[in-house]
Design goal:
The protein has 7 helices and 8 strands, in the order βββββααβββααααα. The protein is of the alpha/beta class and 237 residues long. A hairpin with a 2-residue loop joins strand 1 and strand 2.
């Protein structure tokens, strides 16, 4: 799964050839890659009426292995927030299976877009959270870092064809982080504000805002860490 260009827009899609991937050192995709772990729609169970009884059947657990390539650091951090929801307590079996079978390769940012705000919430354009492998763009190539066992399995033997990173390369990564962070013109969000939002969960302002909601769910697709979902029963007979 990698960014591809469709009608001038970068979107994550399943690819069958490396030539299809658009791996750029800067620029974001329209959506995050979270839908390949938390799909927009999926069957939770099926049921049949047989006589006076109801028979329930769980869907098969996803077994396909996938690699999410060229994920931005902010999007990989969003996946960790989803993990906190769907993998804690009673695990979501479908999400857990996809997560176990997914390797995340992130691409650090070489430039910030006007709407970027990762540094305002204590994160970094070269952050490693949620990544199994990280690619950092340098002037003369990419710095690759293996961060987990999954990442090591994907990269394999780093012997032939690889050039070992140097202390200078690591220093250039620090410099890149400083340059991109300075491009983000957002003031830090005070940590105390999170408690203010929690305390205001029942505030009437949310009800007034909700009256304008069309129920299209686009907000859930855009936000890389949103865990909102709805459930519907559909009969076919």
């Amino acid at each position: 799964v990698a960014p591809v260009e469709e009608d001038g827009v970068a979107l994550f899609r399943r690819i069958t050839s490396e030539d299809q991937a658009v791996v750029e050192p800067s620029g974001k995709t329209r959506w995050s890659p979270k839908e390949f772990l938390f799909p927009r729609t999926e069957a939770l169970y099926s049921y049949n009426f047989t006589g006076g009884t109801v028979q329930l059947e769980d869907p098969s657990v996803p077994e396909e292995h996938q690699v999410l390539l060229a994920v931005r650091s902010c999007d990989s951090a969003g996946l960790v927030r989803l993990d906190e929801i769907f993998l804690s307590g009673t695990k979501d079996r479908l999400y857990a299976a996809r997560r176990e079978n997914t390797t995340v390769v992130t691409t650090a940012c070489a430039a910030a877009d006007p709407e970027c705000f990762c540094t305002a919430v204590g994160y970094s354009p070269v952050g490693e959270e949620g990544a199994d492998v990280q690619l950092v763009p340098l002037e003369d190539g990419w710095l690759l870092s293996v961060l987990t066992d999954k990442g090591g399995s994907l990269v394999g033997d780093p012997g032939g064809g690889w050039t070992k990173a140097t202390a200078k390369d690591r220093k250039r990564t620090v410099q890149l982080e400083k340059i991109v962070s300075e491009q983000i013109g957002r003031s830090p969000v005070n940590q105390e504000w999170s408690q203010v939002l929690e305390d205001g969960f029942e505030h009437g302002a949310w009800d007034r805002l909700a009256q304008h909601c069309l129920g299209c769910s686009v907000c859930a697709y855009v936000c890389p860490s949103c865990s909102c979902f709805d459930m519907n029963h559909e009969g076919n007979a």
